[in-house]
Amino acid sequence: MESTEITLGINLSEDLLKQINQARFNEFGDPPLEMENIKDSLFVNVLSGNELVATGRLFPIDGVVFEDQKYSVMGINGIVALKKGSGYGRKLLKAISDHLSKNDKTGIGFCIPSNRGFYEKCNFGADTLTVNQFRFEKQYGKEELEETDIVIFQEGSDLLITKLRTHPGSLVFFPCHPW
Prior knowledge:
nine-stranded mixed beta sheet
């Protein structure tokens, strides 16, 4: 039996967090997520029985600044389909999209160029036009994105992405590191 669930990080079972960490390591080489850093994150998981088959993370980012206005967005991170070509990734992104729509939030993430088409097929926006406008807190290391990064997004009623596109010389500042 297949199911999709959204779970607050603090409520993840130890077993599910272990499966998520293994999936992230296998896909990206990422170190394990630690509970104190993910308690406010939402994990969107597609399960087949008790087996994790796709996972992704939404996390709140407050205090995003563009043209002297503050925005609250959701970061999209760690999108992994463990069984490629089975439709699990598409189901995962549909659940993420539905959650963002229901909560009227702009969601922003980044991907490599070869994944762009997949996100677009799943009704996410994807562009390189805004990538040079993103800036991150220096204290977290990398301040800018690579020019080859693709911005993936779903826009909420704040119209942040539209504003970025219509003001290409303006920067948007995030109070965190690039995810």
